[in-house]
């Protein structure tokens, strides 16, 4: 990434950092949640400027589709006809003008100065577009943006800055629960800044009384918030981690759905980057179980090792394709007693944390991922010992990835596995009752309803001893 020169017209360091991250996200497919903290540290931003850079970056990425429509109307041309770097400048300016308290003159002046650094000949164009944006109220822009929308899904897609295919998918997922009327609230929650949530790994003797502002989560028995969450993590020697409450519930649903027998063998089939693995490791340590963590990508396997560093358990971290292994190779010749399949997915349940993901995914990704999910599901079932429990988890509420993959897997393994009452398992471990809908065999969490990522959880159990010898989907055991 070239980035703007740091000379000439004055542009605040926070705006420069935000622009550089947006440019890297667009040009290099960087991940904002990984790049932004590094750029903030490199620039030496203080707390206030770091917060401003964060708001500019995430706010602009979340509302990118909406701002692009505003820019097209203000510029009287398609965004495809605007230089990509200049478009990033305009998006940052639109966010400041329409969604922050930044004074109009400051937003326009600094973004024009930034445009002059990026593309000197485009400064006049940027000035004209941003001044046009500033002359119309945010409320009036909302009306202009939705003009010509053909249906409610398209109108909400424009207003709440989601691709229309994602809006339709989320609508279908809520409709399956009889909660289609919550769609607007869900899309709005996707555009809100989530709090930094913590997982206090269980059984590791963490003194939470020393953590300022420590407040237990509503649902997860190991989750919490704090006044300085990053400071709490840094001071914990790996015993406290940043982790969404929904991810914690998904891991705990597997470990706490039934009493653990000493000597159980557990498998995390797709472990990277290791957040759920860390919860499993702490639970295994307390219960006298062993844990194998498998990850396809070596770099992500290294992240798993770092994630579990604070748990004094000898976890066997393997690198390999989760579809191609034998349980005996991983130290479990009779199979594993508990398997977590946190399946690769579209990630539509974490759009508030990874806002750029909504602009990178397409409907064609779903078919490819559901095929992979099915293959991994089969591998997970084959890895189960008689009576073993599988947790099928996705961070996507797309029904093809959730109920579609699950139903197909249950059909292929008819007579070999059976669904469990996942709702009862999750409610039993939750601090407070969860508002859940749909089948009791599955749990779908939602950001607007539960304040979590939209995690899907389904527990299934392999039936008797005869089933353990079955290798092929569809076998009757």
Question: What can you tell me about this protein's structure?
Answer:
This protein has 477 residues and is of the alpha/beta class. 48% of the residues lie in helices and 12% in strands. Strands 5, 6, 7, 8, 9, 10, 11 and 12 form an 8-stranded mixed β-sheet that branches. It has a 4-stranded antiparallel β-sheet with strand order 2-3-1-4. A hairpin with a 6-residue loop joins strand 2 (215-216) and strand 3. It is globular.
List the helices and strands and how they pair.
Layout: H1 13-28, H2 32-43, H3 47-62, H4 64-75, H5 84-99, H6 104-118, H7 123-134, H8 138-145, H9 152-159, H10 164-176, H11 183-190, E1 198-200, E2 215-216, E3 223-225, H12 229-234, E4 240-242, H13 245-256, E5 265-268, H14 275-287, E6 290-295, H15 298-307, E7 316-319, E8 336-342, H16 357-360, H17 363-383, E9 384-394, H18 400-412, E10 417-419, H19 422-429, E11 442-444, H20 447-450, E12 456-462
Parallel strand pairs: 5-6, 5-8, 6-7, 8-9
Antiparallel strand pairs: 1-3, 1-4, 2-3, 9-12, 10-12, 11-12
Helix pairs in contact: 1-2, 1-3, 1-5, 3-5, 4-5, 4-7, 5-6, 5-7, 6-7, 9-10, 13-14, 13-19, 17-18
């Amino acid at each position: 990434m070239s980035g703007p020169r740091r000379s000439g017209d004055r542009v605040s360091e926070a705006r420069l950092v935000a622009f550089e991250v947006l440019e890297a996200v667009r040009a290099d497919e960087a991940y904002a949640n990984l790049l932004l903290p590094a750029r903030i540290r490199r620039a030496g931003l203080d707390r206030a400027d770091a917060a401003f850079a964060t708001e500019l970056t995430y706010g602009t990425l979340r509302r990118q589709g909406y701002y692009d429509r505003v820019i097209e109307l203000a510029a009287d041309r398609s965004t495809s006809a605007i230089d990509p770097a200049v478009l990033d400048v305009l998006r940052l300016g639109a966010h400041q003008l329409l969604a922050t308290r930044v004074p109009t003159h400051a937003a326009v002046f600094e973004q024009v100065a930034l445009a002059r650094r990026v593309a000197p000949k485009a400064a006049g164009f940027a000035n004209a577009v941003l001044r046009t944006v500033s002359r119309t109220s945010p409320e009036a822009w909302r009306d202009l943006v939705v003009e010509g929308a053909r249906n409610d899904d398209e109108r909400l897609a424009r207003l709440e800055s989601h691709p229309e295919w994602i809006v339709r998918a989320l609508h279908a997922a809520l409709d399956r629960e009889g909660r289609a009327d919550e769609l607007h609230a869900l899309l709005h929650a996707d555009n809100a800044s989530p709090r930094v949530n913590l997982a206090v790994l269980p059984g590791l003797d963490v003194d939470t009384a020393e953590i300022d502002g420590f407040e237990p989560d509503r649902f997860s028995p190991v989750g919490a918030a704090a006044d300085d969450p990053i400071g709490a993590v840094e001071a914990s020697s790996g015993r406290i981690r940043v982790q969404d409450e929904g991810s914690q519930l998904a891991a705990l649903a597997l470990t706490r759905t039934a009493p653990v027998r000493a000597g159980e063998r557990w498998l995390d089939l797709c472990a990277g980057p290791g957040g759920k693995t860390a919860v499993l490791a702490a639970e295994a340590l307390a219960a006298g179980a062993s844990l194998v963590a498998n990850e396809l990508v070596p770099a992500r396997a290294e992240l798993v090792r770092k994630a579990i560093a604070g748990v004094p358990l000898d976890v066997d971290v393997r690198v390999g394709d989760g579809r191609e292994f034998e349980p005996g190779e991983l130290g479990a010749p009779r199979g594993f007693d508990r398997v977590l399949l946190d399946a690769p997915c579209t990630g539509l349940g974490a759009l508030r944390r990874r806002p750029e993901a909504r602009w990178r995914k397409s409907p064609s990704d779903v078919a490819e991922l559901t095929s992979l999910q099915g293959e991994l599901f089969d591998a997970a079932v084959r890895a189960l010992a008689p009576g073993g429990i599988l947790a099928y988890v996705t961070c996507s509420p797309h029904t093809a990835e959730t109920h579609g993959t699950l139903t197909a897997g249950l059909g292929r393994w008819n007579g070999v596995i059976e669904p469990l009452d996942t709702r009862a398992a999750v409610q039993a471990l939750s601090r407070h009752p969860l508002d859940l809908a749909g089948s009791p065999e599955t749990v779908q969490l939602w950001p607007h309803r539960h304040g979590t990522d939209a995690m899907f959880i389904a527990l299934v159990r392999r039936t008797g001893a005869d089933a353990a010898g079955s290798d092929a989907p569809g076998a009757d055991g």
